[in-house]
Specification:
Elements (H helix, E strand, L loop, with lengths): L1 E3 L11 E3 L2 E4 L5 E4 L6 E5 L6 H17 L3 H17 L1 H8 L6 H25 L6 E8 L7 E8 L4 E4 L7 H13 L3 E4 L5 H13 L8 E3 L16 E5 L2 H8 L2 H5 L3 E5 L5 E4 L8 H15 L11 E5 L3 H12 L4 E2 L14 H14 L4 E4 L7 E2 L12 E4 L7 H4 L6 E7 L2 H9 L4 E7 L3 H11 L3 E7 L34 H5 L2 E8 L1 H8 L9 E2 L15 E9 L2 H11 L4 H4 L1 H6 L10 H12 L7 E12 L8 E13 L5 E11 L5 E12 L5
Helix pairs in contact: 2-4, 2-5, 3-4, 3-6, 4-5, 9-10, 13-14
The structure holds NADP nicotinamide-adenine-dinucleotide phosphate (NAP).
Length: 687
C-alpha cells in the first residue's frame, strides 16, 4: 500500500481516499476501458484498504466535525461546494465522454448532481433549524396538568453513511446520496461502481480540493467493497443503488441483519408509460408520448433506472404508435459521444452490451423487434465493435399477459410496446412490474389520469401525468428531482432516496422525549408551553445577541366594543353577518350573537404587544398555525402573552428569524386565539 499527500497523476491505478489520505493499491488492478474507443483508461483495485479502519475514521473524525456544525452551516457548505464543482465542471465533462455519455447525457449527470447540492442547501436553510437538533412534529400533551409532555426529536446517527453506487450516474449518483447525509451531519463513504469509478474519483478529488469539507466527512473506496459490510454497526447506514440481485445479497449480509442497519435500496425497475385512449394521432398527447418514449430509450443510451421499459398503448392505437416511434428512432444517430451530431453514445462497457443482448434474447421470446438490430448498428465517427455501441431496440409484444416484458430489465436503449383494452387492465399490467420507480400517463383526460394514478400509485414511487398543459415545463418521466421522492416499492428496492428533507431524516434517529416543559424546552432549544417565561425588558428591544428563549411580554387587557366591531367591518369591508347583523348572528349556532372578527382579535393583539419605536425587530413576515378557539364578543377583555419560542440566526445576514408563541386570552383565562408570529430581528442592536 503506498500513500501520497498529493496523488501522482501519472498513475493509472485509481486511488481511494480513506483515513485522511489518498491511497493506491499495490497490485495491478483490473483494467477499465473507454466506452466508445475501447482504450484502457485506468485500472482499479481496493486491495489492501482497511475497510474497518475507514469506517472507524469516519465515525471518529468525520462525525464529530460535522456535528459541531448546525444544519444551516452544513447547508452553506453544500452551496459553496456546488459553486466550486460548477467552476470545475469542464474537468468532469471531459472525463464523462469516456463513459459513453454525450454532452447532453453529461449535463444530466454532472449539472443534475450539482443541482442536487444546491437544492439541499436551500432546503436545509428554509426547512431545518439553525441548530443541531431536528424537531419532528408538534409537542404532544401527555397529562391533564400540562407538566408532562412529549415530542419527537431527530439527532444524527453516530456512524457512517456507506454509499454504494451504480455505474450509470458516476456524478449525480454519489452527490444525490452525499448531500442529505452531509446535511444531516453524517459522514459519507462513497463506493462507486467499478466500471465508471474514474469519473467519481475525479469528482471526489474536486470535492476534497475545495477545502470546504470537514476532515473525515467524505471518503472514497475505488474497487471492490471487500469486507466493508462486515463492519457496519447499528449507527451506520447503507445506501445502495444497483441491481435488485445485488441489493438482495447485500441486505442479507450478517452484520446488516444482526445490527438492523438501515438499508436504503434503489434497484432496477420496469417502469411504464401509459398512453390514454383520448390521445389519438394528431393530438398533442400522442406526440408527447412518442417523443418521451424515444427520449427515455436514448438518453444515457437507456442506462437509466427510470427509463421507460414498458409502453402501454390502447390496442387500437398500437400500430400508429409503432409507426411514429420507429420514424423518430430512425432519426437517432449513434456514435462517438464527443461528436456533436451524435444523439446517442455508447453503453458503459462491452460487458454491459453483452448483458443487454442477453436480456433482449429473453424479451424476444414474448415480442418481436420492430425497430433496431441488437447485433448491428451504424455508428458515426467511431468503431462499432471496439466501442460498446448498440442500436435502440423497440419490441412489440401483442400479448401483454406474457411474463417477460414485466420481469426482464434490459438496461440499455430498449423498450417494449404492449396493448391494453381497459383502464382496469392497464392498471393491473402496470402493477405486474412488482414495484417501480416511476410511471407516466400521457393523456388529456383528467379522469383517466386520476384513475390510473390512484390505481397504480401503490406500485410506484413517482407518477407523472403529462399533457399539453404541463409538457412545456415538465421535467419529464426519467428525471428524479431532489425535492420529490426517488425510490419505489418492491422490485425497485423499497427505498426513498430523495424527497426533500425526508432524505435527511433517514440519517437521523427519531427519539420520543417525554419530560416536563422546562426540560423539553432545553432539549429542543424551542419554548414549550408550560416552561418558564421571563418578563422584564420588552423582548422587541432585544437583539438576537440578547434575546433568550422564554423571554416574553404580557400586554392588555383591552376591551372589545360594539363600535370596534362595526368600525372594523366598515373599514375592511368584511361585513359578514356575524359581525354586523344582530338578528342573523343570533341565529348562528356557533356564535349566538355578534362576534368580533378573528382578524380584529389578531390586530388588537399586535397593537398590545408591539414596541413601536425603531429597534432590533425589523419586520413581521407572517403568522403560522393560527387558530381562533373561542368567540370574542363585544365587552370581552383581551390579554396577549407573547413568548420567544425559537431563534434562527441566518448564516449570511446580520439578522435572523424569531418565532414567537402568541396566546390571546379573555377575562376568564380561556385562549381565544393561538398562533406563531414570525419576525426578522437584527443580530446586534444598532449603535
Ligand atoms: P450492480 O452490479 O448491482 O452494482 C451496483 C453496485 O454494487 C456497484 O457499486 C458494485 O460494485 C456494488 N457491488 C456489487 N457487488 C457487491 C458486493 N458483494 N459488495 C458490495 N458492493 C457490491 O449494478 P450496476 O450494474 O452497477 O447498475 C445497474 C443496475 O442498477 C440496473 O439494474 C439499474 O436498474 C440499477 N439502477 C438503479 C437506480 C435507482 O436509482 N434505482 C439507479 C441506477 C441504476 P462493483 O461495480 O465494483 O462491482
Amino acid at each position: 500500500m503506498s500513500r501520497h499527500a498529493t496523488p501522482p497523476m501519472s498513475t493509472r491505478l485509481l486511488r481511494s481516499y480513506v483515513g485522511g489520505e489518498w491511497r493506491t493499491a499495490t497490485d495491478e488492478g483490473t483494467p477499465l476501458h473507454d466506452a466508445a474507443t475501447g482504450e484502457e483508461i485506468a485500472r482499479i483495485s481496493s486491495t489492501g484498504i482497511d475497510m474497518r479502519a475507514a469506517l472507524e475514521y469516519g465515525r471518529r473524525v468525520g462525525g464529530p466535525a460535522l456535528r459541531e456544525l448546525t444544519f444551516h452551516q452544513r447547508a452553506a457548505l453544500l452551496k459553496a461546494l456546488a459553486s466550486h464543482l460548477r467552476e470545475h465542471r469542464d474537468e468532469l465533462y471531459a472525463l464523462s465522454t469516456r463513459t459513453g455519455a454525450t454532452r447532453s447525457d453529461t449535463m444530466v449527470d454532472v449539472d443534475g448532481g450539482i443541482g442536487v447540492l444546491f437544492s439541499y442547501s436551500s432546503k436545509g436553510r428554509r426547512e431545518l433549524p439553525n441548530d443541531t437538533v431536528y424537531l419532528d412534529g408538534a409537542v404532544e400533551p401527555l397529562s391533564k396538568g400540562g407538566t408532562f409532555v412529549g415530542r419527537h426529536i431527530g439527532t444524527p446517527l453516530r456512524g457512517v453513511s456507506v454509499q454504494i453506487n451504480a455505474f450509470n450516474f458516476p456524478v449525480w449518483g454519489p452527490l444525490e446520496k452525499f448531500a442529505p447525509a452531509f446535511l444531516a451531519g453524517v459522514p459519507s463513504l462513497v463506493k462507486p461502481a467499478s466500471q465508471t469509478a474514474y469519473l467519481t474519483e475525479k469528482l471526489v478529488e474536486l470535492m476534497l480540493s475545495s477545502g470546504l469539507l470537514p476532515e473525515g466527512s467524505l471518503q472514497l473506496v475505488c474497487g471492490s467493497a471487500g469486507d466493508l459490510l462486515d463492519h457496519v454497526t447499528e449507527q451506520d447506514l447503507v445506501s445502495f443503488t444497483g441491481s435488485a440481485a445485488t441489493a438482495r445479497k447485500l441486505r442479507a449480509r450478517p452484520a446488516v441483519v444482526r445490527n438492523a442497519v438501515r438499508f436504503n435500496a434503489e434497484a432496477d425497475s420496469l417502469n411504464c408509460s401509459i398512453l390514454g385512449p383520448d390521445a389519438t394521432p394528431g393530438t398533442a398527447e400522442f406526440d408527447l408520448f412518442v417523443k418521451q418514449l424515444v427520449t427515455e430509450m436514448t438518453v444515457k443510451a437507456g442506462q437509466k433506472c427510470t427509463a421507460i421499459r414498458r409502453a402501454f398503448v390502447p390496442a387500437e392505437l398500437i400500430d400508429a404508435v409503432q409507426e411514429a416511434a420507429c420514424e423518430r428512432l430512425g432519426r437517432v444517430t449513434v456514435g462517438n459521444p464527443a461528436n456533436e451530431d451524435v444523439r446517442m453514445g455508447a453503453l458503459a462497457s462491452l460487458e454491459q452490451r453483452e448483458e443487454v443482448r442477453r436480456s433482449l434474447k429473453a424479451l424476444s421470446d414474448a415480442g418481436r423487434v420492430v425497430f433496431g438490430d441488437p447485433d448491428h448498428v451504424d455508428v458515426v465517427d467511431a468503431d462499432a465493435e471496439r466501442g460498446a455501441f448498440l442500436s435502440p431496440v423497440l419490441l412489440r409484444a401483442d400479448d401483454p399477459e406474457r411474463a417477460e416484458p414485466h420481469e426482464v430489465e434490459a438496461f440499455g436503449p430498449v423498450s417494449t410496446l404492449l396493448p391494453y383494452t381497459s383502464t382496469e387492465q392497464v392498471v393491473e399490467l402496470a402493477a405486474r412490474g412488482q414495484g417501480s420507480l416511476v410511471g407516466s400517463v400521457v393523456t388529456g383526460d383528467a379522469d383517466f389520469g386520476r384513475d390510473v394514478v390512484l390505481g397504480a400509485a401503490p406500485w410506484h414511487g413517482r407518477m407523472l401525468v403529462l399533457d399539453a398543459d404541463d409538457a412545456k415545463e415538465s421535467t419529464g418521466h426519467g428525471s428524479p428531482l431532489p425535492m420529490l421522492v426517488h425510490g419505489g416499492p418492491g422490485r425497485a428496492g423499497g427505498g426513498e432516496e430523495l424527497g426533500g428533507i425526508r432524505a435527511v431524516l433517514h440519517h437521523l434517529q427519531r427519539t420520543a422525549v417525554q419530560a416536563s416543559p422546562k426540560v423539553l424546552t432545553a432539549v429542543g432549544n424551542s419554548w414549550v408551553p408550560g416552561a418558564p417565561r421571563s418578563e422584564g425588558v420588552h423582548p422587541f428591544r432585544k437583539s438576537l445577541a440578547e434575546l433568550r428563549i422564554g423571554d416574553s411580554v404580557v400586554a392588555g387587557p383591552r376591551t372589545v366594543t360594539d363600535a370596534d366591531v362595526a368600525h372594523f367591518a366598515e373599514f375592511t369591508g368584511d361585513t359578514f353577518y356575524a359581525h354586523t347583523d344582530p338578528k342573523a348572528a343570533e341565529a348562528n349556532p356557533l356564535f349566538g350573537g355578534i362576534v368580533a372578527h378573528g382578524y380584529l382579535v389578531v390586530s388588537f393583539a399586535a397593537g398590545l404587544f408591539v414596541s413601536p419605536e425603531p429597534g432590533p425587530v425589523l419586520a413581521n413576515y407572517g403568522l403560522e398555525n393560527l387558530r381562533f378557539l373561542t368567540p370574542v364578543k363585544p365587552g370581552d377583555e383581551l390579554t396577549v402573552t407573547l413568548t420567544c419560542k425559537q431563534i434562527t440566526p441566518r448564516e449570511n445576514a446580520d439578522y435572523g428569524e424569531v418565532r414567537w408563541d402568541a396566546d390571546v386570552t379573555n377575562a376568564a383565562g380561556e385562549s381565544v386565539a393561538k398562533y406563531d408570529v414570525l419576525t426578522l430581528v437584527a443580530k446586534e442592536t444598532a449603535q
